[in-house]
Amino acid sequence: MTPDPPGHPPSALPQPVDPPGATHVVAGVIVDARGRVLLARRTAGRELAGLWEFPGGKVEPGETPEAALARELDEELGIEVELGDPLMVVPHLTPTRRLRLDVRGIRAWRGTPKGYEGQALAWVQPGALPRYDMPDPDRPVVAALLQPDHCLVTPPPGPGDSDATWLAALESALARGVRRVQFRMPGIDRSRRQQLLANAALHCAAAGAQLLVNGDARLACESGLGLHLPAARLRECRARPVADDQPLSASCHDAEELKLAQALGCDFALVGPVHPTPTHPGHGGIGWAGFEALREQASLPIYAIGGLGVDDIAAARSHGAQGIAAIRGLWEA
């Protein structure tokens, strides 16, 4: 018997409905007692031969995803599995077909996994997963296992709020588990912004949280922090504006911007607004259907943003998101 996979898979994802013509594929995240994740290599003669993937296969007509995953892992690996929680569903569009990759954790199994279809197997430490060449739909799954499932976008201090009050609110958010923060300070003068950033960096470092500066590449480079590009800045960029070891993200509202973010080498993107928000007056939101239509055209991790909170992480994962990003939904206790 073997423990659940790393990360925090949601306990109950909504059941997605396959779009017309979609190929429904299932995959399992199998983790051994040493914390290693099992990958299988696609055999010669198959599409995408030589790439590594999470074990699984196609759902047959009339078959449930759960039954399909149990059957595929028995046929491919010779193991009898106890399914764990859903992890995420990744919609993906290729030049020839539309896919839905339905991924679950495997709570336990009986037997020793072997490549019964001639495929090579590898037990991989989670941190090494990004080094393996994988099909595009598998990449968001790696991110889901390794990266935070929510991202805080900070509001500026309110009228009359002191820096100490703002920093106390940030510290409270970090204490609640926020591990990725976008430092956004509209309307705040540069001197105060720099001081707040310096203090925020100390708090985030102490909590083990990643910190990115919104829009100011110079400030990000000077501080050695990450950089977040608003959509307008993203469209202006012709090369990655920070070093490879500094996180880079972008706000995207359409397929063109997502492709720009991916080509620029962004580590993740924020996509929305999913629902109407005060920061986007007059915008009704793209809804989950609109979000999913954008998700299927990119392989980088993307957060859903716009009127969302931690209670929406499960829904976001069921539409292919890394998780959710929010201002009020994560700032307020």
TrEMBL record:
GO molecular function, one term: 8-oxo-GDP phosphatase activity
Enzyme class: hydrolase
Chemical reaction(s) catalysed: 8-oxo-GTP + H2O = 8-oxo-GMP + diphosphate + H(+); 8-oxo-dGTP + H2O = 8-oxo-dGMP + diphosphate + H(+)
Gene Ontology terms describing biological process: DNA repair; DNA replication; thiamine biosynthetic process
InterPro entries to which the protein is assigned, alphabetical: Aldolase_TIM (IPR013785), MutT-like (IPR047127), MutY_C (IPR029119), Nudix_hydrolase (IPR020476), NUDIX_hydrolase-like_dom_sf (IPR015797), NUDIX_hydrolase_CS (IPR020084), NUDIX_hydrolase_dom (IPR000086), ThiamineP_synth_sf (IPR036206)
Cofactor(s) listed in the protein's UniProt record: Mg(2+)
UniProt KW keywords: DNA damage, DNA repair, DNA replication, Hydrolase, Magnesium, Metal-binding, Mutator protein
One Pfam match: NUDIX_4
Domain Nudix hydrolase: 22-147
Entry EC number(s): 3.6.1.55
PANTHER family with a match to the protein in the record: 8-OXO-DGTP DIPHOSPHATASE, NUDIX HYDROLASE FAMILY PROTEIN
Family note: Belongs to the Nudix hydrolase family.
Protein name: 8-oxo-dGTP diphosphatase
